[in-house]
């Protein structure tokens, strides 16, 4: 009896729970109406109950829907006016659904409890409905990066709780509305912190009434519009302001003198306007660190003395502002100064840089002025650019400061000793060496407190901040990566962001929704020391782990299923006799997919799969025998890919056996493709693949044994091998010949894509051999001079043009080889202690002096003597031609080979002679070497 009562009570409780969790009928109807307008719905939608069954992106309080957050769901369609039925809705976020189009419905004004309306980077068009001004609780209004047209609705001024107003990057036009009698305007938004209106077509004069002393604004971002007229002095009344962007407009007249009162402003952008009159005195802006005044029509003036009072100044941009006279030497004593750009002025006299300058200084650019002389320290670690000044044009000087500034170095999150290219198609290697489908997009910073995008510290800080944020909020994120920092035409800093999933290779829809919301709702705050306001533009995500098909009409699907089921039953009766045959064929196809080598006869030179040239198939038992059952005594290296063993064939030939560990193995077809590529390469300056093993779930590559390690080991002293100048020339020539073979004689041509000193090996006679083809690409007949592909390679060696365009050519290898050439004479890593070897050579080089004045950076172990090394200058010229910014200006590898041969002949060396009789002739050879086939960073 007691059991029956308990069972009854349990059933009642379950029924109460189900009833309480069931979505209110009106909300459920409205949600289904929205779904009828959309394609690519999340799985589970239109089945069951939205609140009870936990539809993705739907949150409920009791039976009422209170939140719809569906960023980056790849939704297609329009927003139905039935959204207004959801009267308890507090949050609507549909950001990053680029194919959500059409106008916003007027009925959106009926959502009286809405606090967040976030539609970032969608495809909405038409005017912003004036009914938005009827949402009394609205705090966040983010409509940026759409296609909205027409005027800013004055009714937005009726939103008393509004904190964030972002209408940037649309097609809005007309003036900024302010109140007039019974008509509202944006001047009424006294509690709003953010006015983000940049990149529109707004015009007219910025209204004086817009600003007042009782406002709380911290960001006024009006850049890249069509504003004209004078800047209202009321702007100087808003004491809370921190960032002001008015650049790229048509503002005219004098700047208000009371801007000096804005003591909290740390970034002021006024460039590219028509401002006139005297330069403003900004002495009171004690926290100002970024000042842009370039390209205006101010009155001619001496260098402003008040600039020296801005103790926080980091970036000064005053190009084409009619400055004249000398630049005070004491200005460079500002301790936070990083970037000074004063191009196209009338500055004159001697540029004096004393010993007490900022230790953060990166560049002083005074191109096209009237500087007659330069008085600075003999050596310095910042850039001075005086091109177009008399000191360079009239004196014939060729000092480093008389050359254009070198390329800014690039940044990408470093990988932690990852194996080369182990990922399946479509996946990306995370910084922790896991293959996955990351959530990607572009971070667009509307202001930054540093300019040099080659400075890695701010990006490392941003990475740490992102990782810490995701961990503290318990989001399913393992790590993040940042890459390709660049400035666009609007002086926004752009950064590619990748967010990698934790514990799996892709995110589900709920996780993507949460990640998108983190950025669209500005939950994540970047480090304020470096980064200002930002917007995130999420890329389309196509790898949802919980997508298994999605029918928009379940009832129709059931009907179709019943019909198909009846047909299948009839067909099965007819096809029963073929069942065994079909199963056999299916098993055979599965075998071919899992083992592409299954039907390859290793005894026949023309085997069908794979198409190999000179490489044989080894059995696992053979390799166990050659390595004494893979004994530790035969272990000569290890890394993320697996272990490398030394083996001995029955003929006595030494071999290197690279055995993949389970976590790093490729699919069978990818492994076959790599072997086919390696097996077609036969050249004395390219490491030879002798064979492979695809047996017992093993993936093993067998190479020729190369005795003396990598070039990087020799240059660093790790191998104990010391290379004199003739031997270095010989190694460079051999490497160039190997690459020229890959580019010009291999059929089809091969682009190595990871040329670096650790991928050039030295045999027992110090002959160079190009190795490691894990990232290589074939140049097929269909490509028109380039392959468009994801950027892969090693930082410091990467071709900048390939990095920016993703168009890979043979000239990308040429650039990397040029870096290796400079590494060869300096023994320095491409990027060492924050210095890029290409930039350092260009900075020091003086062609009027012996050894091009490079003694400071040349490897001292060689014992350089200008009389003994008369080929060095031509060698440096060749290396620098290889690292030209434009790939069209670089030589081919065949041309590089010919030039190195000429250099050797000029130096009295035979380009075709062996480097040494044996490895025993090398100094300190007893120290041994780390084996070249291990995985390298």
TrEMBL record:
<feature type="compositionally biased region" description="Low complexity">
    <location>
        <begin position="915"/>
        <end position="929"/>
    </location>
</feature>
<keyword id="KW-0808">Transferase</keyword>
<keyword id="KW-0732">Signal</keyword>
<keyword id="KW-1133">Transmembrane helix</keyword>
<keyword id="KW-0067">ATP-binding</keyword>
<dbReference type="GO" id="GO:0005524">
    <property type="term" value="F:ATP binding"/>
</dbReference>
<keyword id="KW-0472">Membrane</keyword>
<dbReference type="Pfam" id="PF00560">
    <property type="entry name" value="LRR_1"/>
</dbReference>
<keyword id="KW-0723">Serine/threonine-protein kinase</keyword>
<dbReference type="GO" id="GO:0016020">
    <property type="term" value="C:membrane"/>
</dbReference>
<dbReference type="Pfam" id="PF00069">
    <property type="entry name" value="Pkinase"/>
</dbReference>
<feature type="region of interest" description="Disordered">
    <location>
        <begin position="907"/>
        <end position="937"/>
    </location>
</feature>
<dbReference type="InterPro" id="IPR001611">
    <property type="entry name" value="Leu-rich_rpt"/>
</dbReference>
<dbReference type="GO" id="GO:0004674">
    <property type="term" value="F:protein serine/threonine kinase activity"/>
</dbReference>
<keyword id="KW-0547">Nucleotide-binding</keyword>
<feature type="binding site">
    <location>
        <position position="658"/>
    </location>
    <ligand>
        <name>ATP</name>
    </ligand>
</feature>
<dbReference type="InterPro" id="IPR011009">
    <property type="entry name" value="Kinase-like_dom_sf"/>
</dbReference>
<keyword id="KW-0677">Repeat</keyword>
<keyword id="KW-0418">Kinase</keyword>
<dbReference type="InterPro" id="IPR017441">
    <property type="entry name" value="Protein_kinase_ATP_BS"/>
</dbReference>
<keyword id="KW-0675">Receptor</keyword>
<dbReference type="InterPro" id="IPR032675">
    <property type="entry name" value="LRR_dom_sf"/>
</dbReference>
<dbReference type="InterPro" id="IPR008271">
    <property type="entry name" value="Ser/Thr_kinase_AS"/>
</dbReference>
<keyword id="KW-0812">Transmembrane</keyword>
<feature type="signal peptide">
    <location>
        <begin position="1"/>
        <end position="21"/>
    </location>
</feature>
<keyword id="KW-0433">Leucine-rich repeat</keyword>
<protein>
    <recommendedName>
        <fullName>non-specific serine/threonine protein kinase</fullName>
        <ecNumber>2.7.11.1</ecNumber>
    </recommendedName>
</protein>
<feature type="domain" description="Protein kinase">
    <location>
        <begin position="630"/>
        <end position="904"/>
    </location>
</feature>
<keyword id="KW-0325">Glycoprotein</keyword>
<dbReference type="InterPro" id="IPR000719">
    <property type="entry name" value="Prot_kinase_dom"/>
</dbReference>
<feature type="transmembrane region" description="Helical">
    <location>
        <begin position="560"/>
        <end position="582"/>
    </location>
</feature>
């Amino acid at each position: 009896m007691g059991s029956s009562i308990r069972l009854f009570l349990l059933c009642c409780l379950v029924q109460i729970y189900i009833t309480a969790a069931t979505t209110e009928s009106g909300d459920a109807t409205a949600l289904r109406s929205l779904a009828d307008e959309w394609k690519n719905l999340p799985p589970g939608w239109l089945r069951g109950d939205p609140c009870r069954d936990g539809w993705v992106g739907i949150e409920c309080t009791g039976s009422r829907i209170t939140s719809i957050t569906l960023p980056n769901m790849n939704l297609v369609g329009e927003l139905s006016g039935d959204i207004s039925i959801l009267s308890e809705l507090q949050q609507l976020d549909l950001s990053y659904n680029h194919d959500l189009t059409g106008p916003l419905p007027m009925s959106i004004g009926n959502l009286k409890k809405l606090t967040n309306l976030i539609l970032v980077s969608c495809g909405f068009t038409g005017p912003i409905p004036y009914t938005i001004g009827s949402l009394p609780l609205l705090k966040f209004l983010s409509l940026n990066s759409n296609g909205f047209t027409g005027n800013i609705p004055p009714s937005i001024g009726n939103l008393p709780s509004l904190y964030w107003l972002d209408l940037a990057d649309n097609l809005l036009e007309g003036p900024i509305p302010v109140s007039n009698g019974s008509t509202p305007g944006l001047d009424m938004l006294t509690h709003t912190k953010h006015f983000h209106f940049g990149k529109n077509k707004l015009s007219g004069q910025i209204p004086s009434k817009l600003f007042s002393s009782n406002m709380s604004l911290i960001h006024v971002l009006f850049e890249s519009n069509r504003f004209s007229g004078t800047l209202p002095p009321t702007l100087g009344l808003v004491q809370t302001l921190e960032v002001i962007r008015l650049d790229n407009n048509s503002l005219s007249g004098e700047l208000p003198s009371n801007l000096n009162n804005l003591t909290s402003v740390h970034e002021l952008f006024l460039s590219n306007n028509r401002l006139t009159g005297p330069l403003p005195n900004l002495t009171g802006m004690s926290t100002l660190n970024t000042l842009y005044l370039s390209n205006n029509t101010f009155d001619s003036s001496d260098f402003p003395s008040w600039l020296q009072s801005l103790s926080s100044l980091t970036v000064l941009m005053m190009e084409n502002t009619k400055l004249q006279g000398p630049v005070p030497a004491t200005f460079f004593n500002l301790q936070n100064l990083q970037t000074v750009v004063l191009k196209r002025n009338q500055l004159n006299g001697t540029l004096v840089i004393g010993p007490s300058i900022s230790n953060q200084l990166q560049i002083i650019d005074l191109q096209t002025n009237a500087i007659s002389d330069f008085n600075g320290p003999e050596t310095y670690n910042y850039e001075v650019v005086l091109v177009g000044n008399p000191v360079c044009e009239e004196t014939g000087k060729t000092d480093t400061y008389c050359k254009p500034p070198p390329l800014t170095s690039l940044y990408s999150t470093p990988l932690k000793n990852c194996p080369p290219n182990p990922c399946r198609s479509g996946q990306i290697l995370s910084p922790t060496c896991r293959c996955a489908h990351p959530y990607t997009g572009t971070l667009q910073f509307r202001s930054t407190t540093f300019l040099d995008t080659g400075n890695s510290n701010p990006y490392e800080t941003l990475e740490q901040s992102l990782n810490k944020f995701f961990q503290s909020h318990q989001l399913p994120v393992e790590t993040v990566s940042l890459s390709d920092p660049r400035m666009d035409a609007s002086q926004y800093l752009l950064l590619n962001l990748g967010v990698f999933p934790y514990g799996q290779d892709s995110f589900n829809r709920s996780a993507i929704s949460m990640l998108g919301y983190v950025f669209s709702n500005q939950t994540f705050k970047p480090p304020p020391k470096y980064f200002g306001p930002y917007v995130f533009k999420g890329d389309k995500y196509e790898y949802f782990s919980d997508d298994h098909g999605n029918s928009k009409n379940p009832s129709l699907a059931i009907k179709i299923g019943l019909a198909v089921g009846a047909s299948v039953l009839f067909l099965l009766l007819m096809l029963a006799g073929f069942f065994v045959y079909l199963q056999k064929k299916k098993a055979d196809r599965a075998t071919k997919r899992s083992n592409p080598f299954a039907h390859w006869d290793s005894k026949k030179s023309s085997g069908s799969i794979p198409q190999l040239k000179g490489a044989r198939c080894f059995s696992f038992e053979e390799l166990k025998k050659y390595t004494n059952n893979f004994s530790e005594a035969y272990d000569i290296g290890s890394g993320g890919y697996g272990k490398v063993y030394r083996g001995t064939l029955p003929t006595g030939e030494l071999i290197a056996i690279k055995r993949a560990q389970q976590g790093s193995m490729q699919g069978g077809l990818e492994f076959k493709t790599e072997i086919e590529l390696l097996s077609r390469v036969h050249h004395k300056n390219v490491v030879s693949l002798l064979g492979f093993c695809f047996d017992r779930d093993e993936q093993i590559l067998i190479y020729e044994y190369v005795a003396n390690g990598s070039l990087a080991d020799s240059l660093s002293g790790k191998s104990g091998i010391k290379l004199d100048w003739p031997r270095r020339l010989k190694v460079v020539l051999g490497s160039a010949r190997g690459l020229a073979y890959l580019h010009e004689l291999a059929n089809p041509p091969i682009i190595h894509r990871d040329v670096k000193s650790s991928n050039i090996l030295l045999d027992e006679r110090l002959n160079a051999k190009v190795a490691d083809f894990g990232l290589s690409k074939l140049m097929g007949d269909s490509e028109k001079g380039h392959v468009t592909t994801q950027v892969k390679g090693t930082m410091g060696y990467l071709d900048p043009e390939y990095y920016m365009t993703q168009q890979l050519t043979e000239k990308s290898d040429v650039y990397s080889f040029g870096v290796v050439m400079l590494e060869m004479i300096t023994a320095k890593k491409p990027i060492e202690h924050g210095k890029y070897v290409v930039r350092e050579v260009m900075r020091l080089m003086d062609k009027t002096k012996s050894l091009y004045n490079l003694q400071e950076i040349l490897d001292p172990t060689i014992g350089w003597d200008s009389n003994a090394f008369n080929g060095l200058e031509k060698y440096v010229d060749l290396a620098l031609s290889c690292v030209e910014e434009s790939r069209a200006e670089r030589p081919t590898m065949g041309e590089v080979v010919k030039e190195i041969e000429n250099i050797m002949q000029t130096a009295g060396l035979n380009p075709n002679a062996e480097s040494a009789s044996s490895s025993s002739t090398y100094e300190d050879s007893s120290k041994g070497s780390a084996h070249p086939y291990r995985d390298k960073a």
